Amino acid sequence: MGLENEEFDCADPPLAISPTEARRYWSDHRHHDCELGAAAWEVLAGSRGRPWSDTPHPNTPRDWLTAYRHRGLPTEFTADATGVDLVCDDTVTALLVPAGLAAATYDHTALAVPTLATAPPYVPLHRWAMLTRTAPVSDDATSALADLHITVLAPGDRLRLPTGPSTRLDPPRYWHEWPRRSVAGKPHLVRLLQVANLALATGAVGRRLTSTDGRLVVLRNR
Predict the structure, then answer these.
(1) Record's superkingdom (predicted)?
(2) Per the domain annotation, does 212 fall within a domain?
(3) Is the domain of 23 the same as that of 67?
(4) pLDDT, position 212
(5) Same domain flag for 6 and 85
(6) Residue 3, class by beta-carbon neighbours within 10 Å (0-12 exposed, 13-18 middle, 19+ buried)?
(7) What's the whole-model pTM score?
(8) Both ends of the chain: CA-CA distance in Å?
(9) CA geometry: angle at 170 spanning 169 and 174, to 5°?
(10) Residue 52 lies in a domain
(11) Looking at the 3D structure of the chain, how many domains does it have?
(12) Cβ contacts of 70 within 8 Å, gap of 6 or more
């Protein structure tokens, strides 16, 4: 959901809008021309604004590679040099989460989780990528997440990133929540533990994870 203004109106929409809020705002504001209705439609249409105000608008794959690296994301060209891949490492990973569960998780958290989504309508079989800090995951934690069809990418795994003239890039994916920088050269990322537990709670599997010596394991009642 990201960081939102506490007060907003037709001319001053929130800084970030979740899918649920976008549907509500569009229903309430579509009958008159206002910034809030326009912002809601951009979310629903998968074309939410400009990616980065502090970076020249990217056009070529090299522009996008530079822009992503400027945001602190580890990226390389694709094998055919026509696109850009996120290359997971010991700082950045991604959870691949079924679209419905990812959207519900995103709707119910105030955390700004960089989320690579599929274009609406959100096809249930598609998975969204939710970027987090990297953490080692035990076999039982991997199994608990797999029960909800959630996969955590390992260091070295690659994820194709959007590269094009708008956020509706390289169908079917676009950025729903843009990556942000917390400090120069560092991406603002939520811990894997937090996002995984939000997804587990939303999926109602009755399990949650904890961190033991930096490794994620299933929390067991003693």
Answers:
(1) Bacteria
(2) yes
(3) no
(4) 92
(5) no
(6) exposed
(7) 0.74
(8) 35
(9) 50
(10) no
(11) 2
(12) 52, 55
